[in-house]
Structures are given as C-alpha cells and as structure tokens.
Amino acid sequence: MANIKSSKKDIQRSERNRVRNLKYKTLVKTVVKKSLSAVEAGVENRAEIVREALRTIDKTVTKGVLHKKAAARRKSRIARALNAAA
C-alpha cells in the first residue's frame, strides 16, 4: 500500500475508473450480442436495435473506454451482418 497521499489518491482514482470502464465494456458486449442475434433472427425492428448498439459504441469512445479503431471494427462487423441479412 502506498504511503504518499497523492499515490493513495491515484489508487482510488484508478479503481473508480476501472469499475466505470468495466460497466461500459459490459454494456458494449451486451448490445453487440443483442444486435447480432436480432439480425440473425430477422427481428422486424433490427435496424433500431443496431442503431442503438452503434450509438452505445460511439459513447464508449467519447468516454475514453474504447479506442476509436476498436469501436470502428465492432461497428463494421455489426453493419456487415445487417447488410448481409438484408
């Protein structure tokens, strides 16, 4: 455990950010799975579900959780699946 006050604060901040990032990463995984399964199942409102997934992925980039190229890759895979189903 750190002895310096600023180091203790760094540890607290890192833990807080880790928990927040985990929440967003879990959310992204959930919406990606949900959108891909909706596309495969041929749900009628799949475009709306995909749009929500893309929006969530973009939000995680602005929060600094995902890298922009990683987000682009995930969005591309979802869009490719949607276009192939159509």
Structural commentary:
The protein has helices at residues 5-41, 46-62, 68-85. α2 runs antiparallel to α3 (68-85). With 86 residues, it is mainly alpha-helical. It has a single domain, classed as Methane Monooxygenase Hydroxylase, Chain G, domain 1 (Up-down Bundle), CATH 1.20.58.110. The model has no long low-confidence stretch (mean pLDDT 95). It is built from three helices and no strands. It is 84% helix and 0% strand. It is elongated and about 60 Å long.
Secondary structure layout plus pairing:
Layout lengths: L4 H37 L4 H17 L5 H18 L1
The largest sheet, given as strand count, sense and whether it forms a barrel, is: none
Write down the overall geometry: elongated
Helix content: over 70%
The CATH class designation is Mainly Alpha
CA distance, first residue to last residue: 56 Å
